[in-house]
Design goal:
23% strand; 8-stranded mixed beta sheet; UDP-N-acetylmuramoyl-L-alanine:D-glutamate ligase
């Protein structure tokens, strides 16, 4: 693979409580455990790319505080280049409040702080970053005008542009025309197409509707029903790899980064989709955001063993 990947996105300090259920209004309940983890969709995707051996640059904002220090340190431990990270002089580092239930499902509230405090002038650093890059990967934990400006600049510079629409946010209609690869989960897909997306058939029709808005390829994750991807040559479905669900946090981030890695490495869309599903599945088997992201060798071994058992 030639060139590095730039990830424009959010970095959050995750505060994670595990418990049997969320409290109702006015109610207090006991939780089972509390941990903190490095997180944020952008940072998680950057770490996943680095664990797959991709040279990765993180472009984002943290506060001038100990949380920012810890998030930068954890990116660097994984070999992500952080030279282009900005320190916000006013706002603190973003926080992710994550509740994980006994089924491994999560409920997340993000307080974005520095992640959302961009000015257009701060995109000057992007010119330098774009040189020698193969791909720009964004999510929506940074302001939409900043995401759009970066996508346009990257597309003009000939990079592959990828947008993961998490969390789903209203977007200008022509933004999709600057996106080579759009990645969504089924809830986000429903938000953009205005109807429910449940199962592979509805995901396929949602993917076709989103392709019609001008993106090159659309991938929609479906949790335990796998994922669908469609491009000009048609749609394909990959069934989920059956795994015990410990914590689904960052499974979508793992999927995005793995799909980008596989496509940049030259895999066709079906193989890339399968690789991304395997990476996401492994992430579900572990707790926390960044600690749960697998390395390349683990994914290969997992796929090999699934193949030997005739699963996927
Ligand atoms: O995708 C998981 C991430 O979403 C968490 O790490 C949390 O910080 C939120 O951004």
């Amino acid at each position: 693979m030639d060139g590095h990947v730039i990830v424009l996105g959010g970095l959050n300090f995750d505060l994670v409580i595990r418990g049997s259920r969320m409290p109702g209004k006015g109610e207090s309940v006991f939780g089972k455990s509390f941990h903190t983890f490095p997180g944020g969709k952008g940072a998680n995707q950057a770490v996943q790319l680095a664990r797959l051996g991709v040279q990765t640059h993180m472009f984002g904002r943290v506060g001038n505080d100990i949380y920012g220090d810890q998030l930068i340190a954890s990116l660097e431990e994984d070999g992500v280049t952080t030279d282009a990270l900005l320190r916000d002089p006013e706002l603190g580092t973003g926080k992710g409040w994550v509740f994980v239930d006994d089924d491994g499902d999560n409920y997340i509230i993000v307080v974005p702080e520095a992640n959302m405090n961009w000015a257009q002038g701060e995109l000057e650093a992007l010119d330098e970053l774009l040189r020698g890059s193969a791909c720009l990967l964004c999510q929506l934990e940074t302001p939409v005008p900043i995401v759009e400006a970066c996508l346009v600049q990257a597309k003009d510079a000939g990079l592959m542009t990828v947008l993961n629409t998490a969390p789903a946010t209203k977007l200008p209609a022509d933004l999709f025309t600057h996106v080579d690869l759009l990645i969504l989960n089924q809830t986000e897909a429903a938000f953009y197409v205005g109807r429910s997306v449940d199962g592979a058939d509805q995901a396929q029709s949602a993917a076709e509707a989103l392709l019609a808005r001008g993106c090159g390829t659309v991938a929609i994750t479906l949790g335990d029903q796998g994922a669908v991807a469609a491009d000009g040559s048609g749609a394909r479905h990959c069934a989920a790899f059956p795994v015990p669900a410990v914590d689904v946090t960052a499974a979508g981030d793992s999927f995005c980064a793995a799909l980008v890695h596989a496509l940049l490495a030259g895999a066709d869309l079906s193989r890339a989709l399968q690789f991304a599903c395997a990476s996401g599945a492994l992430t579900v088997t572990r707790s926390g955001a960044q600690p749960s992201l697998p390395k390349l060798a683990e994914i290969r071994a997992f796929m090999e063993s699934a193949r030997a058992r005739h699963v996927n």
